[in-house]
Specification:
By secondary structure, this protein is α/β, with parallel strands linked by helices. The chain has nine helices and twelve strands. Bound molecules: zinc ion.
C-alpha cells in the first residue's frame, strides 16, 4: 500500500512539473506558425485583442489572448504572453496607436500571461491581484534582477483604475484556475476579460500548486455572473471572443463536471475510470473532453485532502 502511495505521488508530481514547464517555457526563436497566429483584432472602439492561438499546439502558440486598451494617457496591456513575445506585442500595438504602453495588468501568474512583462520597461505600472503577485514571486522568471517586473500595485477584491471612458474595474471573486485570477472589466465598452477562468470550452486547467480549485470553480464563476451584469462581450484566455451567455453555460458545465467527478470518486472509480466514464459533450455542444483527465486528477486530490483516509 505504501509503495502504491509513493508511486501515485511520484506520478502526480510528474504531471505537475510537466504542466509548470509548459506554462513557463519561453518561446525559443519565434515559430512562424505562432507569429501567424498572433494577430491584432478590434474588439470595440479603442479596445483590441492580440491573439495567441491554442496552447495544445506549442508550435503555433504565443500565449494567452492580450487585451490592448487605448486610453487618454496611454495603452493598458492585459496579459503579456510567453517570454520573447514583447516586441511582437509592441509592433502590433503600433499598428493601431502611437501612444506608449503605461500599464500592464496580469490576470494570473502563468508564464503564458506574464512572460513578456519585461519588454515594456521597468518604470511601467504593473497590476495584479495580491495572491497572483505572491505566486509570481515564486517564479524563476521573476527572481533577482527580474523582480522589478513583478506587480507593484495589487488589490484584494476590487479596484478601479482610470475614470470615465478609460475606467477599468478589476475584480477577484475566488479560487478557480489559480487563487489569484483577476476579472478585468472595460466598463464603458461593456467588455470583460476573463483570463483563464474561461479559457476554452473544455475542462479548465486547475493549478493546485498556485491555489487553484475545481471544487470552488463554479461558485466563483457564479459570483462573477451575479456581480458583473453590464457586459456584452468577453475576451477569454485562449479562444475567440465570447458572449456572457457562454460564461453562464460554462458555469453550468463546471457544476455538472464537478458533480460527475464527485459521483465517480464516491463510487470508487480511479481517475482513469472516471475520465473514461464522464462525457458532457452531448449536453454541451462544441465542448471538448481533451482536458478532463488532468482536471479530474486535481479534483480527486482536493477530495482526498478534504477527507483523508
Ligand atoms: Zn493560465
Amino acid at each position: 500500500m505504501k509503495r502504491l502511495t509513493i508511486l501515485v505521488a511520484v506520478v502526480a508530481a510528474g504531471v505537475h512539473s510537466i504542466a509548470a514547464s509548459a506554462y513557463q517555457q519561453p518561446a525559443q526563436g519565434l515559430p512562424p506558425a505562432a507569429r501567424a497566429a498572433t494577430q491584432i483584432e478590434k474588439v470595440k472602439d479603442n479596445l483590441y485583442m492580440i491573439t495567441g492561438a491554442d496552447p495544445t499546439d506549442r508550435n503555433s502558440f504565443s500565449g494567452g489572448n492580450t487585451g490592448v486598451f487605448i486610453t487618454n494617457n496611454g495603452v493598458v496591456v492585459v496579459d503579456t504572453k510567453l517570454a520573447g513575445w514583447g516586441q511582437v506585442i509592441l509592433d502590433k500595438i503600433k499598428t493601431v496607436t502611437n501612444k506608449p504602453v503605461t500599464t500592464i495588468i496580469n490576470t494570473h501568474t502563468h508564464g503564458d500571461h506574464t512572460g513578456s512583462n519585461e519588454a515594456f520597461g521597468g518604470t511601467i505600472e504593473i497590476i495584479a491581484q495580491e495572491n497572483t503577485k505572491a505566486n509570481m514571486e515564486k517564479m524563476d522568471a521573476f527572481k533577482g534582477d527580474k523582480a522589478r517586473f513583478l506587480p507593484k500595485k495589487t488589490f484584494k477584491d476590487k479596484m478601479s483604475i482610470g475614470s470615465g471612458k478609460d475606467r477599468i474595474d478589476l475584480y477577484y471573486f475566488g479560487r478557480g484556475h489559480t487563487n489569484g485570477d483577476a476579472w478585468v472589466v472595460y466598463t464603458a465598452l461593456r467588455v470583460m476579460q476573463t483570463g483563464d477562468m474561461f479559457a476554452w470550452k473544455d475542462a479548465p486547467t486547475l493549478d493546485r500548486n498556485n491555489g487553484g480549485s475545481g471544487l470552488e470553480y463554479a461558485q466563483t464563476v457564479g459570483k462573477v455572473l451575479a456581480t458583473v451584469k453590464d457586459v456584452d462581450t468577453l475576451i477569454v484566455g485562449h479562444s475567440p471572443l465570447r458572449k456572457p451567455a457562454e460564461l453562464q453555460e460554462y458555469q453550468r458545465f463546471m457544476t455538472d463536471f464537478v458533480n460527475a467527478v464527485r459521483a465517480a470518486n464516491k463510487a470508487g472509480k480511479s481517475v482513469d475510470e472516471a475520465t473514461a466514464s464522464i462525457n458532457l459533450s452531448a449536453k454541451y455542444p462544441g465542448y471538448k473532453n481533451e482536458r478532463y483527465k488532468a482536471a479530474i486528477q486535481v479534483i480527486y486530490d482536493e477530495l482526498k485532502a478534504a477527507s483523508p483516509n
